[in-house]
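User: I need a structural model of Cytochrome P450 monooxygenase from Hyphodiscus hymeniophilus for a docking pre-check later this week. Nothing fancy, just the predicted structure tokens so I can convert them on my end. Input:
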Amino acid sequence: MSSLSSPFGDGSISLFILVTAAVPLWACGIAIYRLWLSPLAEFPGRKLAALTGWYETYFDCMKRGRYWVEIERMHKEYGPIIRISPWELHVNDPEWNEPYKISSRVNKYHWYYKFVGSSDAAFGTSDHDLHRIRRKAQQGYFTLDAVARFDPVLDEITSKLSRRLEEFRGTGQPANLSNAFRSLATDVVTKFSFHKAYNLLDQHDFSAAFQKTLRDFPEIGLWHRHFGLILDIMDMMPRWMVKIMNPSGIDVLDFFNDIGNQTKAIIKSYGGAKSGDYGRPNVIHQMLDSPNLPVRDKSESRLALEVRTFVGAGTETTGNTLSVTAFHLLANPEKALKLKEEVQAAQNKSSTSLRPTTDDSPSPQSSLKAYGGTDSRLPRINTREAITYKTYQIPVNTPVSMTQRLTHYNKTIFPSPETFLPERWLDPSERRRLEKYLQPFGRGSRACIGLHLASSELYVTIAMLFGQFDMRLFETEEYDIKQVHDFFSPFPDSERGLRVTIE
Ligand code: HEM
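Assistant: Understood. Predicted structure tokens for Cytochrome P450 monooxygenase:
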């Protein structure tokens, strides 16, 4: 024993030999288990993916969010159900919904959702039952009626965008609509959540640097998923260091800190559910008033995190869908013209002129299909029972995921899936058939809580834009819009965004 602890004696040599022999043996044992003995060994897929999680890390971190492409390739080779890591399965079958059924009471896969940095907000909560309590405390705030009451404010914000775009009319100067849309989405989501807009639309360049910094987070989140600690270290960084690393990081930091301060002030002035002395209720009041939300979940830090998550979940998604819609319409001028005529006809018919009904407006549907909101896989874990897929039994506690993009680009369901075809939604019976497969807002108990708000933003903004302006693409191609990277939100390779001139 004593010779083993000696740093230079024979013992350290034997320890060295022991370790060098044990490591390969341990690695061989793991490999044998993963490839032949694991309950997932029978599932088809690449041996390398089954052998090690580094396969996914390579595509995510080195290739920058490209595992989705490899997953598509593996499906082509191995069929509808594949093993994509030592621990996870992936299914490509538009008719299958098992992991997303509300009755399945599944958890989110905690490792995968590490990219959000915390499991304290409803979005990142793994456990089904805890999520249910957290979600219930906020969902009354996001109903169709609540969003309809927000209409006048939404109209004010889109009118502001319209005024800002007027500044570009006839100048030949390009307007970056991608930044304008993201800024609009941030202004909407903060105004909706706690009645404060940060007026990002007012900035001369539509807060380009601020939006760029916000957009760095999803990729950093991917690294955090694989290596941990990264977001925690960023959280602890002093201001001066943030300033040196990225000057506009300070604006983002101040923005998130201000959400914390607003939350604190709202909690402080809160008079209780029945007092009615806190004016127009906001989402923080809604959560404070919830009888089922435990006291520890009503803390300032957790409620602020929920609001920050709304911003994170509601900015890039909505902004990007708007960019994709506008791009495809501008690339197909005859479709833009048709939309303009429809909007103007609706304006003549109704006083709520900028709000076409869903039936009138198939363009957002088409871009939600093209863009999909998130083209990331959405893994779930059933901790209660095994799930059946055809002849396969997916063992209990196994993460299983599906990717809505694979359904949205399925040629049998959506012929010519790559083509922007708003007209495919026009025939009512065809539309009913297709809508079953359109899942941009996710499925089941974890589906998007902001669905009605987002839909309203899409329709009102697109109607305003194409009803009022004649725009031309400015040095923008599909390459500037089309997904290449999966950072949970889809990102193109280009950072230029959608730029237009206005006549
Ligand atoms: C076009 C716009 C949007 C799209 C396509 C979209 C898409 C999605 C999708 C696919 C999910 C499910 C994610 C998962 O299963 O992990 C989701 C969840 C969520 N979305 Fe959205 N979203 C949009 C806009 C918004 C907006 C405006 C908000 C603002 C509040 C929002 C807030 C959320 C939240 C909080 C969740 C988590 C819900 C939960 O787990 O209870 N989203 N969204």
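Before docking, keep this in mind: Residues 1-5, 356-360 have pLDDT under 50 and may be disordered.
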